[in-house]
Specification:
This protein starts with 6 loop residues before the first strand and ends in a 15-residue tail after the last strand. The chain is α/β, with parallel strands linked by helices and 263 residues long. The strands form two sheets. An eight-stranded mixed sheet has the order 3-2-1-4-5-6-9-10, sandwiched between helices. Helix 1 packs across helix 8, helix 3 runs parallel beside helix 4 and helix 4 packs parallel to helix 5.
């Protein structure tokens, strides 16, 4: 996929992984709609990007992704400004041990809503030209994560939802679905993990960090770029390790759609 002139919508784009993904898209010639709940940080990110990539190529919209109305409105405003939509990255995510229902709302439910909205606006069935949706999960979506069971549940959900829907979405709508699963990334979520005070939890966190390493947001953005660029990998699940290694997780053969045998 060539990015020049493409239009992308990225949630949680004011900082961290979302900001890095937005920037790599802009660097490659795309126009980007930045969605984030944090207005101050979002406006600052937009201003910084505008200096390098042109204000006309960037839109910032405040959005609480748990609000279906706000999410719908942001998709509509993106289309009003750029006239089309080619790429959606559902990235917004949190780790909330106290309010686990909020964690599920942000990390899983909003991803499902964002995916269906992306399909709605890009589907060839409704006059769109197709596109690609990348949902950001985590290594904790493919392996147990004892420091955050609900966080892991939300990311397992993203993996299951994305790979399952991918089996029919491309053929029906012309929209590829992919999922990116980074390990630990140098973001605020990691900073919060390092602040754990209970000795037992801190020890477990240190062991996990030593085992998996820590990615930069730029490395995650490069993984995103690899996924989106490869048009042959519908339903792909890409794992990113702290040492920079990339590894695709193949779908089980039994899950792949059957094709009629030739006669």
């Amino acid at each position: 996929m060539e990015f020049q002139g493409k239009v992308a919508l990225v949630t949680g784009a004011a900082q961290g992984i979302g900001k890095a993904i937005a920037e790599i898209l802009l660097k490659n010639g795309a126009k980007v709609s930045l969605l984030d709940i944090n207005v101050t940080t979002g406006e600052a990110t937009k201003a910084a990007f505008a200096q390098s990539y042109g204000d006309e190529n960037i839109l910032f919209l405040q959005c609480d992704v748990t609000s279906e109305n706000q999410l719908k409105d942001c998709f509509s405003k993106t289309l009003e400004k750029f006239q089309k939509l080619d790429i959606v990255c559902n990235n917004a995510g949190i780790s909330d041990r106290e309010n686990w229902e909020n964690c599920l709302s942000v990390n899983l439910v909003s991803v499902i809503k964002g995916t269906y909205l992306g399909i709605q606006h890009m589907s060839k069935e409704t006059g769109g030209k197709g596109g690609v949706i990348v949902n950001i999960a985590s290594m904790s979506g493919v392996t147990p994560y004892y420091l955050g069971p609900v966080y892991a549940a939300s990311k397992y959900g993203v993996v299951g939802f994305t790979t399952s829907l991918s089996l029919t979405c491309l053929e029906k709508h012309g929209v590829r679905l992919q999922v990116l699963c980074p390990g630990f990334v140098d973001t605020q979520l990691l900073a919060n993990l390092k602040l754990l005070k209970a000795p037992e939890q801190k020890e477990k966190a240190d062991r996990l960090l030593a085992r998996f390493g820590v990615l930069t947001t730029s490395q995650v953005a490069e993984g995103f770029l690899q996924l989106v660029t490869d048009q042959t990998r519908n339903g792909a699940l890409l794992k990113l390790f702290g040492n920079g290694r990339l590894e695709y997780e193949p779908l089980p053969a039994a899950c792949l759609p059957e094709h009629p045998k030739s006669t």
